Amino acid sequence: MPELRIDPLTGQRAVLAGARASRPGGELSAPPAPELDPLSDPFAEGHEDRTPPELYAVRPNGGAPNTPGWRVRVVPNLYPALSPDSEQPAPHANPDLFWSAPARGAHEVIVSAPDPVTSLSALTVEQVAAAMDVWRERMRFHAGAAYVHVIVNERREAGASLPHTHAQLYALDFVPAAVARERERFGAYATRTMGGNLLADLVQEEVRQRERIVAIDEHTVLMAPYGARVPFQLLIAPRTPRMRFEDDGPTGAAMLHDALGRLARRLGANPPLNLWVRTAPRDAEHFCWRIDVLPRLTHLAGLELGAGVHLNIVAPERAAAELREV
User: Fold this and answer.
1) Is residue 94 part of a domain?
2) Is residue 128 a contact partner of residue 143, using CB atoms and an 8 Å limit?
3) Is residue 219 part of a domain?
4) Cα distances (angstroms) measured from residue 200 to each of 2, 177, 181
5) CATH of the domain at 41
6) What is the predicted pLDDT for the residue at 27?
């Protein structure tokens, strides 16, 4: 029977309705990604002149900026959503109804590797680790921002305009409402439990129950969230709680590589997906970082967009079991 659940971290509601997976068109799989054309790839090694001048790069053997020989490369987004020079818009006569402000901040592209591949899973674990180290380095660089949001969109269906695997960083001058709500939930939980950490306690209980755990390694846990919004949604959390992803410590690179490989094996190919790093905003007193992975196998429709309630046709317990098997 359909079941309504609340995600303990976000407070979002999701309806689990597994029977809908048997309706026409309910089968879940991922067709292979289109081939990447190296000649038209602006992120390919040797095409450094096709991007804005680099901000940062990992060059083990040295070398000048904007030349080949890099392993991870950071450039400004050619079409930025944020700008440090954004100008103040003209004030409106009724700001209570029509409020606006400059969209100030930074918007960067982090090219994960010179290899012309469309998914992080096609890289080696060492390459993923190197890319995530640069995510962390750039987050530290923008430590003065109110919040730094790092994302990966894979494939056009998930919003990627260029197929070569890359991350994006948004340094925001405000804390997004979704992050603020989570900060409040962490704080309220700490108050109720005399200092408990919401995600650390959740991980401990999930490991005890084992129903939604996919894998565990020395540093991290991979699980299907209790209130998963989409089929095969995954969450990576540190076994020892740490507030901020950008602080020293393991990044979860091996577990992320493992998670993406499991999704590809279960679904037949690397699926379109969005993933992001959730880290503590700078004024948080209680938090724990995590990585959310949301495959894009179904469409958001009127229930999700109109009511903010997600309809998930694969229970997280089933998703975890199937991903454990592969």
Assistant:
1) no
2) no
3) yes
4) 29, 22, 18
5) 3.30.428.10
6) 77
Contact, 297 vs 30, CB < 8 A? yes
Q: Nearest Cα to 48, choosing from 31, 72, 65?
A: 65
User: At 309, which amino acid appears?
Assistant: V
Averaged pLDDT for residues 40-64:
95
Token output for 211: 């129903």
Quote the pLDDT of residue 1. Answer: 85
Number of domains in the chain: 1
- Verdict on whether the full-model pTM lies above 0.85: yes
Residue in this structure with the two tokens 């997906």, named with its chain if needed: 273
Instruction: Please indicate, yes or no, if residue 185 is contained in any of the structural domains.
Output: yes
Residue 79 pLDDT > 80: yes
Residue closest to 237 by CA, chosen among 5, 9, 4, 11: 9
The parent domain of residue 170 ranges over 3-24+35-82+100-325
Residue 65: inside a domain: yes
The tokens describing 246, both together, are 């950008």
- Residue given tokens 């995510």 in the structure block: 135
